[in-house]
Amino acid sequence: MKVCNVLVVGGAGYIGSHMVKSLLDNGSGVVTLDDLSTGSRELVRGGEFYKGSMNDQALLDKIFSENRINAVMHFAAYSLVGESVADPLKYYKNNICGTTGLIRGMLRNGVKKIIFSSTAAVYGEPDETPITEEHRARPTNPYGATKIAVERMLQDCDTAYDLKYVSLRYFNAAGADESGKIGERHEPESHLIPLILKTAAGERKNISIFGTDYPTPDGTCIRDYIHVNDLAKAHSLALEALVAGRPSAVYNLGNSKGYSVNEVINIAKRITGLPISVVESGRRLGDPAVLIASSDKIKKELGWKPQHEDLETIISTAWKWHAGRKEN
After folding, report:
1. Do 136 and 94 fall within a single domain?
2. Structural domain of residue 292, as residue ranges?
3. Distance (Å, rounded) from C-alpha 245 to C-alpha 235?
4. Where does the pLDDT of residue 328 fall: very low under 50, low under 70, confident under 90, or very high at 90 and above?
5. How far is CA 276 from CA 92, 185, 197, 251, 327, in A?
6. Domain shared by 16 and 120, yes or no
């Protein structure tokens, strides 16, 4: 692929920081924009860094004028399902209005390629699994609603302004870079696997299971987990496709295999060799029972193939990162 200079918006976050490292490792120029409201500056392993909002038009003009940006990767959405239900306006303001500002800045500066971090939450409660990209979008929470709104905005911008995009609908991102130098860290933490590992390490008293009465074999939610570096690889392939002149597209990203909450906890117990205390709680608003991806489309069209398909490997890399932080 022709070497690109990529603006990674939200590049100090979990997935964004792994994308920054991957791009740098592959020889691309990287500029990170992050307001550090949820990201960590120390996770950005190189390239140029600007602190600020994706809706700051003066800052965007400065970034585009000082760097020969060819494409943008957007990871800067708020992403907590429960919080989105409790405070939807926070999500509509950042995820939709912020992205509108980012696109406005791109177009004003002649940048017309964007890779968008979307989510399986756009599907809501699925009619069938595995879920394909043709499945109707009917999100059950404001987080998913804001993501599908942005996807529709991107489609309209393609028609009106020739803005080319790839929207990647993640299922559950997990794991950490094999180097152990970067990994998943949120404040507060809300994702299942790091919460389980924090419990194993004694940083939490227990892990809560939200709902044990779902229509699944063991009553707990089933999710499709994908390694964060496999996500990064998919972003690189999507960028290659846009640079090569392929049309805008939407792809699912998952491993096409689901694990229940109980299964994830049991695998983590085996990997860590430590006890993990569990507390059963009621369901959370907006949580579908089962989300499993069909990723056949991106495999066929872009040649993507996940390298870390089994959950044991995914959790092992996350544990390496977490244990390394504890030691340091």
Report:
1. yes
2. 192-223+256-327
3. 16
4. very low
5. 36, 19, 8, 35, 20
6. yes
Catalytic residue among 14, 50, 123, 143: 143
pLDDT, average across residues 217-245: 96
**Token couple for 137:** 């979008």
pLDDT for the residue 111? 98
Tokens in use for 280?
Answer: 């059963």
pTM of the entire predicted model: 0.94
Q: Find, among 128, 110, 43, 115, the residue nearest to 76 by Cα.
A: 115
Terminal Cα-to-Cα distance of the chain (whole angstroms): 38
Are 144 and 199 found together in one domain? no
Of the candidates 114, 85, 100, 101, the one whose C-alpha atom is nearest the C-alpha of residue 4 is: 114
Which uninterrupted H or E stretch holds 258? strand 258-260
pLDDT of residue 186: 67
DSSP 3-state assignment of 105? helix
Phi, psi of 311 (to 5 degrees): -65, -30
Identify whether 143 is a catalytic site residue: yes
pLDDT digits (tens, 9 = 90+) for 138-152: 998 999 999 999 999
Read off the pLDDT band of 1 (50, 70, 90).
Answer: very low
Omega before 130 within 30 of 0, i.e. cis: yes
CA distance 148 to 122: 6
- Give residues with Cβ within 8 angstroms of 87, minimum separation 6: none
Q: Write down the pLDDT at residue 309.
A: 87
Q: Is the pLDDT of residue 19 over 50?
A: yes
- In the chain, the number of structural domains is 2
Torsions phi, psi for 14 (to 5 deg): -60, -65
The CATH number for 300's domain is: 3.90.25.10
For residues 47 and 169, membership in a common domain is answered with yes
Given 253, 273, 300, which residue is the final one in a domain?
253
What is the pLDDT of the chain when averaged over all its residues? 94
Number of Cβ atoms within 10 Å of the Cβ of 128: 10
241 falls within a domain: yes
Q: For the domain that residue 95 is a member of, what is the CATH number?
A: 3.40.50.720
